[in-house]
Amino acid sequence: MADQKTVLVVSAHAADFVWRAGGAIALYASRGYRVRILCLSYGERGESQGAWKQPGMTIERVKEIRREESTRAAKLLGAEIRFFDSGDYPIVATQETVDAMVVEFRELQPEFVLTHSLLDPYNPDHPTACNITLQTRVYAQALGYPAPGKPLNAPPVFLFEPHQPEQCEWKPQVLLDVTPVWDTKHKAMESMEAQTHLWEYYTDLGKRRGTQAVRNGGPKGIKYAEAFQRYYPQVTTELS
Ligand SMILES: [Zn+2]
Fold first, then answer.
1. 182 alpha carbon to ligand 1 midpoint, in Å?
2. Ligand 1 (single-atom ion) residues, CB below 5 Å
3. For the purposes of burial, counting CB atoms within 10 Å of the CB of 154, is it exposed (0-12), middle (13-18) or buried (19 or more)?
């Protein structure tokens, strides 16, 4: 559909988008948006504990496992996914990757963008992914940047909730009700078999943010929510 609205999600590692934005992804997919995930790394070194515990594991096999898990999770959430295999600990974006991301921005013209927090002392790849996203978003706006497609407008950027927000100077400025798609998010989390220890953690977090959403004026029916921080100012004609 030419007039289909789109959302762009940039995930440092194979599972980040599931824990941190799986509800938002499933929600917008259920509303008919085209949701596209760019996954910069498989998280083969830093975030694949379960896979490395299996005997005879190799880096290529870990990447394969994580790729399969992420592909399955994206499908469950109703999204497309593209992998860049930019390494892990550290992620290093080549010029080719930067150019490809500019093209993604220009082709998709997303309504909004989701990515990581600016800081994360527990995983330097997360801020790296955030910076690459912010850079390529700006490049995609520049008429003079040599890439095909129409220059990008100014889609808002929302930063995912990091694992320990207080350590990342991140605040929950937006609480998104994801109750209608919670079962879908939970199924996607369960497809991340290399990180089973996080299923319960992110279920508890979803509930807690849901309770806070009601406390902040949301409808009583909210059971689960995801939190985001805005990067750019909100433009509005109403203070609400
Ligand atoms: Zn990660």
1. 21
2. 12-13, 16
3. exposed
Residues whose CB is less than 8 angstroms from the CB of residue 200 and which lie 6 or more positions away in sequence, other chains included:
none
pTM over 0.85: yes
Beta-sheet pairing, 157-159 with 34-39: unpaired
Q: How far is the CA of 125 from the centre of ligand 1 (A)?
A: 7
Centre of ligand 1 to C-alpha 17, Å, is: 9
pLDDT (tens digit per residue) in 94-144: 999 999 999 999 999 999 999 999 999 999 999 999 999 999 999 999 999
Q: What is the pLDDT of residue 19?
A: 96
Contact 152, 106 (CB under 8 A): yes
* Cα 57 to averaged position of ligand 1 atoms, centre (Å): 20
